[in-house]
Write the structure tokens for this entry.
Amino acid sequence: MGSTAVNLVLTEEQEELRDSLRRFLADRSPMSRVRQMMETPEGYDRALWDRMAADLSLQGMAVPDTFGGAGFGQVEMSIVMEELGRALVSSPFLASAVLATNALLALDDADARRELLPSIAAGRTIATLAVAEEGRGWDASKIATTAVLDGDGWRLQGTKTPVVDGFAADLVVVVAHAGGELGFFTVEGDAPGLSRTRLAGLDLTRQLASLGFSGAPARRLVCEDAPCALNQVLDVASVALAAEQLGGLQRCLEMSVDYAKARAQFGRPIGSFQAVKHLCADMHVAMELARSAVRYAAWAADAAPGELPVAAGLARAFCSEAFFKVAADTIQVHGGIGFTWEHDAHLYYRRANSSELLLGGPVKVRERLAERLGV
Amino acid sequence: MAEARGPAELNFRAQARTWLEANATRRSDDETAGGRRWDLASARVFQGRLHDAGFAGIAWPMAYGGQGLTPADQRAFDEEARDFELPGEFFGIGMGMCGPTLLDLGTEEQKHRYIRPLLRGEEVWCQLFSEPGAGSDVASLQTRAVKDGDGWLISGQKVWTSVARFADLGALIARTDPDVPKHDGITMFVVDMHAPGVTVRPLRDMTGGATFNEVFFDGVRVPAENVIGEVNAGWAASVRMLMHERVSIGGSTRSRRGCAFGSLTEVARSRGLDRDPVVRQRLADLYVRERVVHLFGTRLAQEARLGRNPGSRGSVGKLAGAELARFSAGVAAELLGSDAIAWDAADREGARWAAAILSAPAGGIAGGSNEIQRNIIGERVLGLPKEPRVDRGVPFRELRVGTRLSSPLSTPRSRLRGDPGEGEG
């Protein structure tokens, strides 16, 4: 009975992890640094990435220690993602430590795990997962990219877009059709036949790219049931992304409350007006409910895998909608200043909108959830 | 999703289940079927047996008739009892609000006098707070208690009083000093609902039912020993009782039936709507909203178990629950379609759905409106500044209170429905 008891409360150690991470990011990635990095061609902070690995081993947080990771679970990962989301950190963490790492963990390729994971977990290799295609979204049943056998190797043909941090990636895990079935492949970032294009994006703090494969050499990963593995990867990634959304929501709430206390109009703080106070109260409710959903989904990922498909959909559906509403209301609470380039509110609004559509938008998330609930 | 439990609690839970199986009626699996209607006499008998068996006042002190066990044991019993038809409608106010407040603030004599009969269902309690002119602003209440020898004479009108028709006793707040600021001149009393001068009238609500009442007090005599807490310290006692109320309402939402994901999915299926993509979106949305409110409740309970006081965060659950009720009623109406607006007069299911849809707005008003909950969250949780107040430090006598424009103690008028003539004197 103990193993299936739902736990929605963090341990002291987990709270310490959150606190130390928050201090680290306040020190190493303040908003001034985030803004500086988003203006660079790379769009992310390589120095911060290296420190995340060297000082805190974040990239290997949920990688088993046999592959050089810290061996923690999705609860710890959700704490990391929440803090990264709160600080709006520009890094390929979602791509490498979440999407690609979980793909390798979900597949049945022990050799690939042994060869690739230690370097990814140490932050030396930046990896990503390429699923979505133009006009087809993240729907596995609509994938058109193909892999053909050429001698004793495979070659990929097709276009993947958008690929999270596809331009920075040293290694791309690609989902493609091989004959009649879906398969997972890896392609080196600098492989011949791979052309990479940086995309302009709504979210200035997450880098998206289009990857064109024209006969790029690929290695096929061993996998019994690719659609099932892909579901598993996307479910775990959904929990991580929901946690990142929660972090952004939390920061928007804090910004709004601080501003409502400090800004005076009509001779009193605007937060004393119920119209503004109630908007902030609704943000707080959204935060409490989103946090409950994320804790549950992370717990399910670690302790009750049978509940994960529903829990992941639940957390994603709620956090997507909640973060977007809170980010928009944050601009509203700030009034004119919230609509300026200088204010950070628009960066969160961009992230909220973009994250809602990543890995499949809200309509898709709800349909999958309905299906999983047996409706 | 089971909770972690210790062996003693498991044992208690097993005893509770065994007793309930043997002595209570299991709720019907059909969520739309009606629950058992209790009459007061059989409810009293059942409650007495429940107390004899050791399942009433589980976490209350033994000295006054409780069982002296832990809140975890009480939760275990509540979870088991959720599947059974218990006569909660008569005793909920006493158990959830008046009893806990008496345990907090009552004298030894009061606790010995009132708690045991309350737990045994021998005395039904009601709570007399709201007035026609004092809803969200309860502290502006106008019911007066005037010193009369060694007791008090109470005059005024209360409203929204559940179970008043059946109540033997009530916890009432009244103005005992109009010359001090409004919060400082209120006292809480135990009143005998059978005393001369007490008139109870059913108040028909928008569902067509009459679970609430108006209660009129016309010079009702109350002895001095019936003061709960201190004279003129009734506001603190009220805050305490309202806190118990919020916890008690929060706890009861978990067992709500009707417009829930499970029953509405059945409705969709039975009408062949479950393949409709829009309906599927709505049902998934309902599931998400329902589940996050429930998960928040679980999280708060787990934190409370670790010693973290939920404090004002209870308002989050109450507000979210009220909004969920409105949302679910909307989904229900959408799925029921024309069956929600017209049904065969003999069709109990049609009437029941109508009642579920019509009762949805209540949650956003009862026990502190959504607006009051948002103020509590804004001010006590987020630390936002209060509105400037026109009544701070002003003696009650000089305030404009209620819904009228003249001074409070000169023009007695009832505001809600006509003038009963025996309202505030």
Summary: The mean pLDDT of chain A is 96.
